[in-house]
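Shift notes (night). Ran Amino acid ABC transporter ATPase while the centrifuge was going.
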Amino acid sequence: MIQIKQVNKSYGSVNVLQNINLEIPESNVYALIGPSGAGKSTLIRSMNALETIQAGEIIVDGTSVHDRRTNINKLRSDIGFVFQAFNLYPHLTAVENVAIAPVQVKKVPKDEATEKAKKLLASLGLGEKYDSFPGQLSGGQQQRVAIARALAMDPKVMLFDEPTSALDPEMIKEVLDAIRGLASSGMTMVVVTHEMGFAREICDQIVFMAEGKIVEVAPPEQFFTQPSSDRAKDFLSKVLNH
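Came back to this:
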């Protein structure tokens, strides 16, 4: 489903991604974890060309993401992306935020898009918030609207870039529960997260990154109990004990 081959990216003399190779099968959930500055967000953002790369190739469902001939708008309609910040339109209601892209990009009739938006919001526990504006919603509710907005395009892949990092602790669970539901439905997903328990619970593979490199890829139980690299052992000793 997602193939990453020899990907490199630099900002000046700083190598942000170094010889990244990774293959993510369909219906799998992969977590990208590691210290700040490891390149996790840069890597996930490069999967739908929000970041450019200098070398290598990223292929999503048979399409080369960074090929100049690729229709980037069509590609992004197949790849749902949920940001750290919610990025909702403040002047639109929850249902309008979810329905706008299918109407404008896919030319879905407004009534049809609105009906689907309501179903998506209801499935994420927001059935009573259709007509609320983002400013009237909690952070957790706004992030669930953002997830519904991404799902409204019927994506083949969902990418989450630290979806709970901007939330108060008590709001994190409702967003993680929404992502759990997607995982159980068989959606192909990549999640950048600092929530170790969540990654251990729902992911098929843990991808540990440090200093722009993939250091280790392993199933959750193996990674969290018997990491093979000293760098991962050091990281886990800090994040699991504090």
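The chain has one domain: 2-240. The longest strand covers residues 14-24.
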